[in-house]
Sequence to fold (242 residues):
Amino acid sequence: MSILIGAFTDRAYAMAPGMGPNAVVAYSLVAGQGLTFPEAMGIIFLEGLCITVFVLTGFREAIFKAIPLQLKKAIVIGIGLFIHFIGLVDDGLVAVGEGTPLALGNFVGVPVLVTIFGLVVIIMMMMTRRMRGAVGLGILSSTVVAVILNYAYGKTSFPAGVAVWPGSIVATPDFSLVGQLDFGAFAKLGSAAAVLWICSLMLSDFFDTMGTLVGVGSGGGGVSPASCRPTPPHRRSSSSGS
Fold:
């Protein structure tokens, strides 16, 4: 899909699977509702099919234009904070509190050091140097530092398989799971409950995609910040030339 977008449109977007519903599939549908993974993926397939219908009929674009700009920006901020919070928890800067939902971490260990190093590098490149690709360069430099420190401490600083040199750069993809889905959720959960799950996941993906489009598109020049609508190609060309 990324190749098709680059070949047939003028939008510089990379298409990738939505990772948002991962926790819902694992903890709610499988562990909570007792579905198998193929049955849970059947729910995901149906909600994706509904969104595809909305796209083809123009219904999703109509909803996108009807939502106020302030709410679109709020969705962008919410997604950013959510991703940032995951990183803070994984790196040990934030932990589960005793008697409180959250507490500060111990700020001890190699992961915390690498996290602080990466944040400082990104902030310096963005705030003082105004460098393009500061986030990507910060991630790359942090990865290099993490791998060096992990080997220096006998590969005990990170979980197994993290911050290590891969055994092979290229591997054959595993396509055995392609098409492994069924629709047994309607029998296990009941039709009404299954439909509600489809609708809830569809709304989550719907607004998640909207927020990502506005945030990435505004930063990359593909979406006008004033209206959050696609900027015509000739306007982008003239503005970049001037």
Observations:
- Strands lie at 94-96, 102-104.
- The first helix runs from residue 2 to 8.
